[in-house]
Amino acid sequence: MKLVVAVVQGKDAEGLMTALRQGSYRATQINSSGGFLRENNVTIITGVNDAQVPDVFRLIRENCYTRTQYVNPLLPIMEPGEFYMPSPVEVQVGGATVFVLPIVRYERIMAAAAGGIGVSAGD
Ligand code: 2BA
User: Fold this and answer.
1) CA of 119 to the centre of ligand 1 (A)
2) d(Cα 25, Cα 59) in Å, to the nearest integer?
3) CA distance 29 to 43
4) Would you state the pLDDT for residue 116?
5) Closest ligand 1 atom to Cα of 91
6) Which residues of the chain have pLDDT under 50?
7) CA distances, 13 to each of 55, 99, 109 (Å)
């Protein structure tokens, strides 16, 4: 079994989650942000059988697109009187950054709450 961790752009997350759901994959999405651009992105984690990894990659490829973004570089250290005109730098972001990790153990723990299923004493 493998854990596929995909960092995707926010604009692509809903489409990928829908495609995973339609493929009967269980997935969790976590709001995250990139260390470089500091923009919101989404980290999607899904635990799958080894044989399903290529199909998950197919869904990621079909739903996540590369986009161009512009970043303002940090100001350099300047001497008094020097003038610096910042010009945005072009970076290519995504489709997706994907990590595949081995899963040592996977368990879904299903236990009923004490005193009933999801009903508190006051209800
Ligand atoms: P960010 O860190 O915000 O990076 C956004 C984009 O900026 C990157 O796109 C890349 O094109 C550029 N970039 C990042 N660091 C750079 C640097 N030191 N110098 C020049 N350009 C740089 P992607 O490579 O497609 O990455 C998209 C997002 O995926 C990243 O957002 C980050 O959240 C995640 N990511 C990428 N590589 C990762 C890694 N090795 N570990 C963990 N997360 C990663």
Assistant:
1) 45
2) 11
3) 6
4) 58
5) 11
6) 121-123
7) 17, 16, 27
Output the CA 37–ligand 1 centroid distance in Å.
Answer: 8
Which tokens sit at 106? 């996977």
**DSSP state string for the chain:** -EEEEEEEEHHHHHHHHHHHHHTT---EEEEEE-TTT--EEEEEEEEE-GGGHHHHHHHHHHH---EEEEEPPPPPP--TT------PEEEEE-SEEEEEEE-S-------PPTTSSS--TT-
The protein residue with its alpha carbon nearest to ligand 1, atom 21, reads 91
Backbone torsion region of residue 7, taken as left when φ is above 0, otherwise alpha when ψ lies between -120 and 50, otherwise beta: beta
How much is the pLDDT for 114?
84
Instruction: Please identify, by atom number, the ligand 1 atom nearest to the C-alpha of residue 38.
Output: 3
